[in-house]
Amino acid sequence: MVVSQDVIRRDILRERDTLQKRSVIDLTEIIVEFGRKQGRVIILEGIFSSKKYRTMLLGLMKKFDKAYVYYFDLPFEETLRRHATKLNAHEFGEELMREWWNKEDYLGVSSEKALNQELSVESIVNQILADIDDAQLVH
Fold first, then answer.
1. Is the pLDDT assigned to residue 52 strictly greater than 80?
2. Which CATH class is domain 2-138?
């Protein structure tokens, strides 16, 4: 079950990502909890800055036997290059991305894995799938 921060914030709630709004956090928690109760593997993805989302993410992690955290540790220029290849690249550009940019915004948990620009999409997907397989063996 893929839970996308962009879908929740931009598409469903149509809100800006500010510290004053709890609705994105609340709805994310509800959706993840629904998936957990269904016994689903949940992939929570998006730009979850530590400043805004750390408490929520750590709280959600405590509810699961296994939780993996991946951080794209990419230079801004590489992030900008990758963004240009996305279907929604026209929706926002470099100026907004610089506002959102949080270099080395790690969550700081032991299971966190940094993904750098040398890793191919295939190797990243294989790593995540291997972690999911390992987590399912625990049950």
1. yes
2. alpha beta
